[in-house]
Amino acid sequence: MRRTLAFALLALVALGVATYVAGEQIEVVVLRSFDAGGAPFDTKVWAVDYEGDTWVRVANPQRH
Predict the structure, then answer these.
(1) Number of domains comprising the chain
(2) pTM higher than the cut 0.85
(3) CA-to-CA distance for 8 and 18, rounded, in angstroms?
(4) Which helix (H) or strand (E) holds 41?
(5) Per the domain annotation, does 63 fall within a domain?
(6) In this structure, is residue 50 part of a structural domain?
(7) How many C-alpha atoms does 63 have within 13 Å on its Cβ side?
(8) What pLDDT was estimated at residue 58?
(9) How far apart are the first and last CA of the chain?
């Protein structure tokens, strides 16, 4: 029982690490914009090409 639980926990941690790496290191574009005073702001945009189309993921569900 303990071995099964340990394996499940390890698999969950591995999935979390893989998700982080895929989400933060692969297919990430940094969009730099500037406010009225000229101060830069960087925004991460996740872009994926799938079957000839580009899909963009926005981290904030309030944005369209």
Answers:
(1) 1
(2) no
(3) 15
(4) strand 40-50
(5) no
(6) yes
(7) 7
(8) 65
(9) 46
pLDDT band at 64 (very low <50, low <70, confident <90, very high): low
Residue 63 has pLDDT above 60, yes or no: no
Q: Are 58 and 48 in contact (CB under 8 A)?
A: no
Give 11's contacts (C-beta < 8 A, 6+ positions apart).
none
pLDDT at 11 over 80: yes
Q: For residue 20, tell me if it sits in a domain.
A: yes
Write out the H or E segment, with its range, that includes residue 64. none
Residue 44 pLDDT grade (very low, low, confident, very high; cuts 50, 70, 90): confident
Range of the domain at 6: 2-57
Q: Are the C-beta atoms of 29 and 20 separated by less than 8 Å?
A: no
Enter the tokens of residue 20. 């982080």
Whether 62 maps to a domain, the answer reads: no
